[in-house]
């Protein structure tokens, strides 16, 4: 039923208008969404004078809240339709401290392809991802070309103290972290990350622990360190020790 409604709305409104109206609706309802309790706990950890990154900003919902909380927020979103929505969010809500960057992030500076999956006739912008043999989940959809950079080589971040990172890049997190090694060592930001239960998750655990991060989850309103891989949990906090 949900997919049918989405398909009809995308056809009636057009894809870009659908994304915009959906974004406005979600901005009004996100705080009441219990599925986002972990994100709002992460938000509570961020100080007002912080500089934050939103990697995989999608439609800018979390960019909006990060910018409201932080001194400066830098959002990365390479998908052109999504980027245009974030640009409109920035303008509508006067988020002058929000910087938008259109390149993808990874562990190499190169040109890459991204896919906007189409599932049962519905464009799934939230599942857009880098085309890569290690993590491609959806093969049907629209392809886009983007520049990919290492976070350590991103000119906009040179000399900045990065205090917090939210990242959700659909199974490409490990590559992004590898390309951010110097930043992570220098700045030691707190990290909030959605990780599916697969090899990418295990690689992220091992890598961030090697950089002296403690993987934690939110349990009954408190962060608790984990000793194993909790298969039923997707949202993780990585706190520098």
Characterise the protein shown here.
The chain is α/β, with parallel strands linked by helices. The chain has one domain: 3-Layer(aba) Sandwich (Rossmann fold). Helices cover 34% and strands 28% of the residues. The protein contains eight helices and 13 strands. The protein has helices spanning 2-13, 15-29, 37-44, 61-69, 80-92, 173-178, 181-187, 199-210, and strands spanning 51-55, 72-76, 98-101, 104-106, 110-119, 122-123, 129-130, 141-150, 164-167, 190-194, 213-219, 222-225, 235-240. The strands form two sheets. An eight-stranded mixed sheet has the order 3-2-1-9-10-13-11-12, with helices on both faces. Strands 4, 5, 6, 7 and 8 form a five-stranded mixed sheet that branches. β11 and β12 form a beta hairpin. α1 crosses α2 (15-29) and α2 (15-29) crosses α5. The longest helix is centred in the N-terminal third of the chain and has 15 residues, at 15-29. The radius of gyration is 17 Å and the shape is globular. It starts with a helix and ends with a strand. The mean pLDDT is 94.
Topology overview:
Blueprint: H1 2-13, H2 15-29, H3 37-44, E1 51-55, H4 61-69, E2 72-76, H5 80-92, E3 98-101, E4 104-106, E5 110-119, E6 122-123, E7 129-130, E8 141-150, E9 164-167, H6 173-178, H7 181-187, E10 190-194, H8 199-210, E11 213-219, E12 222-225, E13 235-240
Parallel strand pairs: 1-2, 1-9, 2-3, 4-8, 9-10
Antiparallel strand pairs: 5-6, 5-7, 5-8, 10-13, 11-12, 11-13
